[in-house]
Amino acid sequence: MKPVPIDLSRLTDIDRAHVFLGVDDEIRPILERFPAILERVQNVIHFISQIGAHDVRENVCGYIRATLAEMVSIEDAQKDIVSAVQLMTTSGNPLLCVVRELRNVEIHLSSVTLSSRNQPYLWGDIAKPGDATEVDIQIHWIDNIDIESFRKLRYYEKYDDSAFKVALSWFDKNQRCWGIGELLYRAISEYAMELAGSLL
After folding, report:
1. Distance from C-alpha of 170 to C-alpha of 94, rounded to nearest angstrom
2. SS3 66
3. What is the pTM of this model?
4. DSSP per-residue letters across 17-29
5. What burial class does residue 66 get, using C-beta atoms within 10 Å of its C-beta: 0-12 exposed, 13-18 middle, 19+ buried?
6. Helical pair 35-51 and 180-199, crossing angle rounded to 10 deg
7. Who's near 44: CB < 8 A, 6+ residues apart?
């Protein structure tokens, strides 16, 4: 089995959350040439937008599950379109590696402990924090992410354990601060960017 490198240098500090979710204007024209891929990217973004819009645990879990499944389905959507499929793990992006395997761990989300809280944020121009307005936004996160659950996966051995553990710790810390919706949106945005680059 070919090993999957995880480039830990791509883990960056998160200093803001997204409110308006959508496909980046720069890559939309490229993805529009591949409707089956664009449709799935848009579906993922829609499901993510619904995560923060609900406070019923079952609804939130359903949208997380739908997000993960639809994101991974983009890999299959490429098979009849391109000669070289851009897998979520192709680039070694730590966020995408964790999200790819999270789909396998948490596809049955009835087993997770989901937590929520209202998180205060500043709404406004990041260059002018003094002019910003404080708002409370509800965030959700999976409360029982555990490295041992990932180690049980069939294909986990393709990763370096120490690198994956660092990536998973980064993911867990940031989902608790910014919400899992923000982490999933960053994942689909980065994956869409990689897809656009491979489809040029």
Report:
1. 9
2. helix
3. 0.92
4. --SS----TTTHH
5. middle
6. 170
7. 67, 70, 71, 74, 184, 188
Length of the chain (residues): 200
Distance CA 7, CA 80 (A): 29
The CA radius of gyration of the chain, in Å to the nearest whole number, is 17
Given a contact cutoff of 8 angstroms between Cβ atoms, the answer to whether 183 and 171 are in contact is: yes
Phi, psi of 144 (to 5 degrees): -125, 40
pLDDT band at 189, cuts 50/70/90? very high
Residue pair 105/153 in contact by the 8 Å Cβ criterion: yes
Distance between CA 96 and CA 187 in Å, rounded?
6
Question: In the chain, helix, strand, coil percent, each to 5?
Answer: 55, 10, 35
Q: How many C-beta atoms lie closer than 10 Å to residue 187's C-beta?
A: 25
Closest by alpha carbon to 6, among 90, 107, 114?
90
Whether the CB-CB separation of 176 and 141 falls below 8 Å is answered with yes
For 19-39, write each residue's pLDDT tens digit.
Answer: 889 999 999 999 999 999 999
Residues in Cβ contact with 111 at an 8 Å cutoff, skipping those fewer than 6 apart: none
Beta strands in the chain (DSSP E): 114-123, 133-142
With a CB cutoff of 8 Å and minimum separation 6, the contacts of 15 are 126
CA angle 37, 35, 40 (to 5 degrees): 35
